[in-house]
Predict the structure.
Amino acid sequence: MTRQQLFGFAAAIVISAAVMAQAPVTGGKGASLADIAGTDTLVTVQLKIGAEDANVKVDSVANGLLTVVNSRGEKNYYKLSDVKEIRVQGEVVRVRTISSRVDRGLTDKQQGTLDRAITRATELFTNSAANQPIRVKSAQVLAMAGSEDAKKTAIEYLTSLETGNDLYTSLIASGNLYIAGDADVPKESIKQGLASGDRNIRGLAATLAGLTKDEDSIPDLRRMLQDRAPEISAPAARALAKLGDRESIPTLLTMIMERSEERSTAAASALVKLGGPEIAEQMKLKLPKAEGLAKFRVVSVLFEMNDPEGLQLMRDEMMKVPSLQYSASLVLAPKGEMKALQYLRNYLNQRYDPTPEFIARRALATAALIRAGDRTNAGVFQELLDIETPAVQITVLRVLGTLNVKTLLPILAPCLESPDPSVSAIACQSAVALAYSDYRDRLGELPL
């Protein structure tokens, strides 16, 4: 996905090459029409008939029509085919804007829940001046889905944190801007973060380097991959995979067999991302000696790479190991495997202890069934959310936010009103994630 797609200006999301050729921008040091639309950059519009409209700002470009605004706030409209050129007066004024478009098909009830989530995020942002984590999270939601004024305020707030003196706070702000749709993370912050002695800072910087395709970070990430601390090596593995660094494959092949769940799981994820026949071959070479969870991870890589042997082993071997049945069912059920579907249905019918671990397992089982098209157990989410324990509700809300099922929006409504701001903020995130697929994807990559 390109930078323009990620945080393209709201009025000019898609502009064809033909249109751009009809309305060249001059005097802007290479700025395009998309770069100046929606900003405070002053321009002069020169028409082919010789007339000019000076001291105006480009408001939008859509359907072959150029809309500009003068100093009195009045709008003028020109057909792009009638425009000879657009001359930039002075410097291009670059502002951070985030484009968002809700997925279609919301019912009135679903839209009402989404609207309330945005309003609730506004309340949390306003009332959480002394609680920076909640304010940042609510700003993330507003930067993505708030009104134009709310978006502007939220982006300005996050940008002020991003340009502050505290490196960890700066990276957190950059991460939240990324989730909201702005991938313009300062490279200098990433560079400083990778060199930090703080493991949390280094891990977050590594994640951002991968998400923003910062190829300059590859040497640092390769060194981090050798670190035994999972807080450092796991995000480095995922980042290198996103950057397509195949030189890291030998280390990843070793990591996947380790006992450290965080390191080995990250290695498996990275190998799937890198893909290719040589990785599939290496996984098959490991199968004879692999046992237990290590073998499950190897099979999982083959399965996720759509290798026929991976599917066969997951279905016929992993499903027969009692300690692995649950994990195997989670990946097989969305593929429509009947034994996996039945296992998860039976699992949800069992009695359970309301511990965070079992709550998470029930939520994930329900999500897997829903991904398979079976929504008969969707009520399990409501049952779990009725347990008024913040940790439980947050766990369930995070799982809900990974689904592409807008019909689940209304069950979030009670959590939006939670007196616990942590629960309410996550509920706002999940509501927006259910409505906006691009936001949901980014939140899944970086769950801040």
